[in-house]
Structure formats: structure tokens, C-alpha cells
Design brief:
This protein is of the alpha/beta class and 823 residues long. It folds into five domains: 67 residues, no CATH class; 126 residues, no CATH class; 133 residues, no CATH class; 217 residues, Tandem AAA-ATPase domain (Rossmann fold); 243 residues, P-loop containing nucleotide triphosphate hydrolases (Rossmann fold), CATH 3.40.50.300. The chain is 41% helix and 20% strand. The protein contains 29 helices and 32 strands. The protein has a seven-stranded parallel sheet with strand order 22-23-21-24-25-20-26, sandwiched between helices. Strands 4, 5, 6, 9, 10 and 11 form a six-stranded mixed sheet that branches. Strand 13 and strand 14 form a beta hairpin. Helix 10 crosses helix 11, helix 11 crosses helix 12 and helix 18 runs antiparallel to helix 19.
């Protein structure tokens, strides 16, 4: 038996030259290592020599060994390693399985976690010994074990602890680990790396850019959204369209929830791009609200009217906007404060404008300058009429060769516009085109600066009006244009003008589609076509409250640059306060029985109709049923039916007479409103019977001159009670002498009622106006008031953008509330 000791591969060339050493017979007491090596004639390298020397020393046989090279032992002490974590793809499920390799890097050695106490290395005739920092290794591993999405596979391998069979869930866990937990691990001291073939990586994105390219369609642009990842650009439109097919993502976009989280989209190479909600939310909304082609491969298209959204997209979102300089200029002009009115443009004004009125004129002129119309939606008493007249006169002065302007009004307001024009601008010539035997429109235009006509006349003579170009077309009481199918609305849209101005402080009264009709007059295309608007706004608002607030705010955002809406509080006007009082009245036996019998019958009819053809197709029938019950609440005699009790009495009318007696005893002047002239007739009969002097205003068979005389009598003290329908009371009427107004039949159109009340608060008189609402207890009138409150919130959401909004239409809960009350 012989043992050969030969220089090993780690022996430096300068080591002593030793070829072989032959050893004589060795005792069988040698440990197994030495005996096995000897019997196999094994060559032992230097790194094992010291171990062998220890064996021989323990046997007292060290003298039997030849002289060995001297090896110096170098103690390097305890060294803290670098903790390494590497992300890898599974070899068997490379397309989605992720596993993590973990090791600790000591000088020259990669060690599995907690796999020994020391590292020994022999090199260059020296023996190096490193003590491992097991406390540090243990601390790092314990921290890694606490990572929620990881589970330990073996001592140096971790896997994602998600459902492997649910690909979407597993991939989400894999990318969230990288995005949400890896940064914390790096901060804790882990050095994170990726295998060369790893393709589940969340790539860092750099610049987000939006580029506009003009199309052949005037005012329309193809828009590219790109994100730079390394040296590559990714089409962000396709990425967002992919995400927008996820209902949860859409919900978070619509409701602006979880803005601090991120979504992920997989690229063709298998890697992922991170989509931060706070950065992508506005872009995603743009695709939802403007493009309306989720899942499509068509280009994203925007018009110049979409700049309201464009501003919010670029606001602090880290997005670079390129191209479309004309859109930028248009956008800047809309958002910049309007330039003051140039000296001399209003030099002929007899009465000076107030500062906020001058701003209104400047605002209108700034819209005209960039070629768009406007909605002048200030509250009553701010002076919408004088602002519009001043705008028309300033334009006439600035551009005398420009076409005439046209003012379209309800018949009752013709004299008001003419009188206001003469009051402020005596040199301004205003012609009236209305009535039988009216003059030819052509010569009238030559003789006047502006023409006043009515909606009815415009509709009847539309062909004559279309023969001329107009400079400014102003449409007063513009809320009457809320039905886009109405003849007068279509006539206004047909007119050719440099600018169209719709005037109304109550554009929205019932539902969101009213805004589309008006917007399509002042800025065609602003809210796209009606089918698109109904699909993206009206339908979603009516379906429920989930997206209603966001949808209404979006309409407000889109229309804001074209809608000037200021309250009296905004401009510092101090108007008389309004004290609202609800008086609840119990019906008498006969009236109550008639109401309940009618309610039960209508309730069954409505439910049967809805069950057969649905709610949407029965709106007209439902409204007719509601009207019948409301009329019974006011007076059974309003209902044309054989079932009406003979000599039926009205509890509300009896209560009205009591309240009226109290108010007149206090020397109060009272206005009473109802939407039915027949009800006013019944009230007038009682007033006549009681000897109470009164006047009436209604739109049926009453001439304009008679209306003016009746209003004058009330204002001049010739009577203390004025009866008026809501329709007449909401149009161009000033009765500040009134101390109280009685709303005889509450309705769910809050703006219509607000208009009537505001007629009593048109100046700064030192008084309080009291508004009495007469409500039949336990009837559908209580439900009507609740719906009115909801509609008010809807209007506020569009105008102000911060109200808790709800649908403006009737839903199943409304039907239950209205027809169930009293049962």
C-alpha cells in the first residue's frame, strides 16, 4: 500500500517541487480517510494536507510523513455577506412560473442560507478561514419569510404563494411582488437581480407622451399615446384599451378610487409595464369618454373641444404633449382671463356697467374671438340682459361692417329687451320682427343694429332668417331649448352666425340630456352626437348612482369653458333672504277616499305596464298618472272623471284661505302659483267670494298688454294678491314688492320653482321673502319633493362639479315611493 502526495490544482507554481513521497507500511489504526486514500493510491492536493497532518498527529505518527510544505493559517474573522435575491423563470413553466434564488455572497464564495458556520479556503500555501455572520443571515431570511406573497420551497429557493392554476391571479401576484415588495427588500439590504432569460419583469417606464396629428377632418386629430421603456416605445392606447376591458379597472377609473395603486399590462415579450393609477386615470377616462372604442384597433381621435380634458390630463401627470399648436392656442384662449373691454367700445352707455358685468361682456367677446358660442348662465339679478346687449353693442362698435345681431325671446320679453336697450344704449337701434303684418326682414336689418323676434316667429319664418348671416344670435330663456327635437330648437341650430349665445340661469331643469341640446347650439360637436352622449352619459346616469356623480362632473368639465355661471353671492349682490316653510295638510274624508281609490287603480295599471314593456317605454303614462294624483291633492275638481265626488272640497284650498287671511292681516303682498290655470281659476272664485282684490297671470287667452297691466297693478298697490302660473312666473318678470309666495302644487323641477321665487327677490330691499309650500300629508307630493331635491343635486353636480349627484330620471324606487304613499 502506498500513499502519493502530489501538488494539487490550487498549488502555486512557486510551491516546493514535490513529485511523490513513498510511505512505508501504515498502521491499520489510521482513520478511514487516510486508509481509503492510501488503498486507492489517491493523490491528495495541498488543501487536504493539513487535514491529513492532523490525523497523523492524533495517532502520534507524524514522523512517518515526509517533510511537508509549511502552510500559513490566515484567520479573516467574521464577515457580513451581501444578501442576494435573483428572480428566475421556472424551467418547466417558463411562461408564468416565477421562483427566487437566495444566497449570501462572501469574498469568493456564494453560500446557501445558514448552511455552515465557516468557510475554509487554501490558496498559495495559505489557509484562509472566514467565520460566517449567521446572525445577519438569520435576520435577513426571517425578514424575507415575512413577505406575504412568498413561500419557501427549499433552503435557497422561494416561490410566489398564489394559486398556480389561476393564471391571472398568479401573474398579478408575481408582478405585485416586484412592484410592491422588492423596493422594500432592497431597502432592507437585499441585492436584487434578474436572470438573463427572465421575462416576467416589471419594466420601469420613463416618458409618457401624447402626440397630435392632424387629419383630413377639420378640427379632428389622431392622437398617439406612447411610453418609453429603455430604447423601445410602447403604444399606450393599446395597453389602456386592454385594461379597460377589465370591469374593476373601469370602476376605479370612473369613481377615482384606489389612486395610489398600480395596474399591470403584459407586453408581447412577456414582461410587464406598470400603470400607476394616479398617472393613467385621466388618460383612461379620455378613452372612455372621448374615444368610445374600447377593444378597437382604430386610432384615438380628439377634437378641439376636448381641450377641457386635455388640460386635466397634462396637469401634474408627467405627460408630455406634442403637436397641435392650434389646439394649444385655442385651449389657452379659453382658460386665460378675458381681456378688458377696450376704451370706447361702450362709450354710448348711459348707465355704467358693474365690474362683474364688464367681465361677462369680456368673457363673451373672448369666446367669439376663437369662434365658439357661450351659455350665459348667471343667476337672476346679475344682469344677463344688459351683459348681452353690451356685448352686441361692443361688437357693433368694433366691427360696424359685420352683420346684424339677432335676439330671440318668448313673446312676453320683447318689450323688456327693447326697453333695456334704450335704457342703457339710446343710440342703439333695435327692430322688432313679430306679429301680423310684420315688415320685411331685409329692410329692417338695414335700419337697425339688432333685431328682436320670438321663437315662434323664427320657426315659422325660418327660411327668411336663413337667407341672412348674423353676427351674434342671443337666445333668452334658453332652457326652453332643452328639447333638441323641438321645432324652435332646430330653428336656432340652423341659423348662420359668428356666435350663438344661450341665456339662462337654469339650463338644467330635469335631466342631463338638456345640456346636450343647448351645447349643440353654442358649440356643435362639444358633446359629440346625441347617440354618443346618450350612450356614454344619459344611460349611465339613469342606470344608477354608481357612476352618476362622475358622469355629471364630466359633463360639467367639458362644458365649463363655454358656460359662465355665477351666483349673486359670487359677485357680491346682497338680495333679500328667502325663508322656506313647508305646511303639511290632511285631506278630508271624501277627498282622501277619492285619492286612495285612484292611487290603487293607477298603482296596479303602472305595475302591469312596467312588467309587460318596461319602465322606459311607459314614462308618458307614468307622468300622466302622477299628474292625476297631484291634481286630486290640489282639488278633485281638476280631474275630468265621473268618479269625482259631487261638491268635492279641497283641503289645500281651505288651508290656503287661512294662510292668506293671516298674511293680508299683516299687510303682506302675496303671490300664489300653480302650474294649472284651472286651479288658479278655482282660487280666484274663492277670492272673489271673500272679496279679496287680486290679479291673475297665465298664458292662456291673456294678451301681453293685459299681463303687463296686471303686474303693474300688483306692483303699484292696486291689489295685494297675484295669481300666476309657473310658466308665466318663470319668464322675465320682476315683482320685488311681493313679501310671500305660496307654491300651491309642489313639483320636482327645482329650478322652475326657484325662478318663480326669485321674481320677488330682484333687488336689495331690506326684507325677507317667505316661500310657503303646501303639501298634502301622506300623498305622492311628499315623494315629489324628495325627487326635486335629487334633481337639484344633479344640477349642482354639473354646474359645480362637487355635489353628490343622482339620476334625473324616474326609477323603480321612485315609482314605489310615489304610488305607494298613502297605501
Amino acid at each position: 500500500m502506498s500513499l502519493v502526495i502530489r501538488p494539487g490544482i490550487s498549488t502555486p507554481t512557486r510551491s516546493p517541487s514535490v513529485d511523490t513521497v513513498t510511505i512505508g507500511r501504515i498502521s491499520n489504526e489510521l482513520p478511514a480517510l487516510a486508509l481509503a486514500a492510501a488503498e486507492a493510491n489517491t493523490e491528495i492536493v495541498y488543501k487536504d494536507i493539513l487535514a491529513l497532518q492532523d490525523v497523523f498527529d492524533s495517532l502520534g505518527a507524524s514522523s512517518a510523513l515526509p517533510a511537508l510544505p509549511t502552510i500559513e493559517v490566515v484567520e479573516q474573522g467574521r464577515i457580513t455577506p451581501v444578501a442576494h435575491l435573483q428572480l428566475n423563470n421556472s424551467e418547466t413553466h417558463w411562461e408564468r412560473k416565477l421562483f427566487i434564488k437566495v444566497w449570501f455572497q462572501y469574498p469568493g464564495h456564494s453560500m446557501a442560507p445558514l448552511s455552515g458556520t465557516e468557510i475554509v479556503k487554501t490558496e498559495g500555501g495559505k489557509r484562509y478561514r472566514i467565520e460566517r455572520d449567521l446572525d445577519y443571515e438569520r435576520e435577513m431570511i426571517e425578514g424575507l419569510n415575512k413577505t406575504p406573497v412568498l413561500s419557501r420551497d427549499d433552503s435557497s429557493t422561494y416561490i410566489i404563494s398564489a394559486d398556480y392554476d389561476d393564471e391571472e391571479d398568479y401573474l398579478l401576484a408575481a408582478v405585485e411582488f416586484q412592484d410592491e415588495y422588492v423596493p422594500g427588500l432592497i431597502e432592507a439590504g437585499w441585492k436584487v437581480s434578474f436572470a438573463n432569460d427572465f421575462n416576467l419583469r416589471v419594466l420601469p417606464n420613463q416618458d409618457w407622451a401624447m402626440t397630435f396629428e392632424e387629419t383630413e377632418e377639420n378640427g379632428w386629430y389622431n392622437v398617439r399615446l406612447e411610453v418609453t421603456i429603455g430604447e423601445h416605445k410602447v403604444n399606450l392606447v393599446e395597453v389602456l384599451r386592454q385594461l379597460l376591458q377589465n370591469p374593476k379597472f373601469v370602476e376605479q377609473i370612473r369613481l377615482s378610487t384606489e389612486t395610489d395603486r398600480s395596474w399591470y399590462s403584459r407586453l408581447p415579450n412577456g414582461n410587464f409595464i406598470r400603470i400607476p393609477m394616479n398617472q393613467v386615470q385621466r388618460l383612461a377616462k379620455l378613452l372612455l369618454d372621448i374615444n368610445d372604442q374600447v377593444g378597437s384597433t382604430k386610432p384615438l381621435k380628439m377634437s378641439r373641444f376636448d381641450v377641457a380634458l386635455l388640460d386635466h390630463i397634462g396637469d401634474g401627470a408627467g405627460i408630455i404633449i406634442n403637436g397641435a399648436e392650434d389646439i394649444k392656442a385655442f385651449h389657452k384662449a379659453l382658460l386665460s382671463p378675458p381681456a378688458p373691454i377696450a376704451d370706447g367700445l361702450l362709450k354710448d352707455a348711459v348707465l355704467p356697467l358693474r365690474p362683474y358685468q364688464e367681465f361677462g361682456v369680456s368673457w363673451l367677446r373672448s369666446r367669439l374671438k376663437v369662434g365658439v358660442g357661450a351659455i350665459l348662465g348667471d343667476e337672476m339679478a346679475i344682469g344677463k340682459t344688459v351683459q348681452t346687449l353690451s356685448h352686441i353693442w361692443a361688437e357693433r362698435t368694433d366691427s360696424p361692417s359685420a352683420p346684424n345681431s339677432l335676439i330671440v325671446v318668448p313673446p312676453t320679453l320683447i318689450s323688456k329687451w327693447v326697453d333695456e336697450g334704450q335704457k342703457f344704449y339710446p343710440t342703439m337701434k333695435i327692430g322688432v320682427y313679430h306679429g301680423a303684418g310684420r315688415a320685411d326682414l331685409g329692410p329692417m336689418r338695414e335700419q337697425n343694429d339688432a333685431i328682436v323676434t320670438t321663437y315662434g316667429t323664427l320657426s315659422g319664418d325660418i327660411d327668411r332668417f336663413l337667407q341672412h348671416d348674423w353676427h351674434v344670435v342671443a337666445m333668452d330663456e334658453g332652457h326652453d331649448l332643452r328639447n333638441h327635437k323641438a321645432q324652435k330648437t332646430r330653428a336656432c341650430k340652423q341659423l348662420k352666425a359668428a356666435q350663438k349665445v344661450v341665456i339662462s340661469g337654469t339650463i338644467l331643469q330635469n335631466h342631463i340630456e338638456e345640456m346636450w341640446s343647448v351645447a349643440d347650439i353654442v358649440a356643435p360637436g362639444l358633446l359629440r352626437d346625441n347617440a354618443w352622449f346618450r350612450r356614454n352619459f344619459v344611460k349611465q346616469v339613469r342606470q344608477g348612482e354608481l357612476f352618476a356623480t362622475e358622469r355629471l362632473r364630466m359633463v360639467g368639465m367639458l362644458t365649463a369653458p363655454y358656460h359662465l355661471h355665477r351666483s349673486n353671492k359670487d359677485v357680491g349682490n346682497a338680495l333679500p333672504p328667502v325663508n322656506t316653510v313647508y305646511r303639511y295638510i290632511n285631506m278630508g274624508d271624501e277627498q282622501s277616499k277619492f285619492y286612495e281609490a285612484t292611487r290603487a287603480t293607477l298603482d296596479k295599471e303602472i305595475r302591469d305596464m312596467i312588467a309587460e314593456t318596461g319602465l322606459a317605454k311607459n314614462q308618458i303614462s307614468i307622468l300622466a298618472a302622477i299628474t292625476r294624483l297631484r291634481q286630486i291633492c290640489c282639488h278633485p275638481a281638476l280631474v275630468k272623471s265621473e268618479q269625482v265626488p259631487k261638491n268635492a272640497e279641497s283641503a289645500k284650498l281651505e288651508y290656503l284661505m287661512q294662510v292668506l287671511e293671516e298674511l293680508l292681516a299683516e299687510k303682506k303682498k302675496v303671490v300664489i302659483t300653480s302650474e294649472w290655470s284651472e286651479m288658479l281659476g278655482l282660487i280666484a272664485d274663492r277670492l272673489n267670494h271673500s272679496g279679496i282684490n287680486h290679479r291673475m297671470l297665465h298664458g292662456t287667452s291673456m294678451s301681453l298688454n293685459q299681463r303687463k297691466e296686471n303686474v303693474a297693478d300688483f306692483r303699484e298697490g292696486k291689489c295685494d294678491v297675484l295669481l300666476m302660473t309657473l310658466g308665466v312666473g318663470g319668464v322675465g318678470l320682476d315683482i320685488p314688492e311681493g313679501d310671500a309666495i305660496i307654491i300651491f302644487a309642489p313639483w320636482w323641477n327645482p329650478k322652475r320653482i326657484d325662478q318663480a321665487i326669485a321674481r320677488l327677490t330682484r333687488d336689495d330691499r331690506d326684507k325677507t321673502v317667505t316661500a310657503y309650500f303646501l303639501v298634502i300629508k301622506g300623498s305622492l307630493e311628499e315623494g315629489v319633493i324628495k325627487i326635486g331635491e335629487r334633481k337639484g343635486e344633479m344640477i349642482a353636480a354639473v354646474m359645480d362639479g362637487d355635489a353628490a349627484a343622482h339620476s334625473g330620471g324616474l326609477n323603480f324606487d321612485d315609482i314605489e315611493m310615489l304610488f305607494g304613499l298613502g297605501s
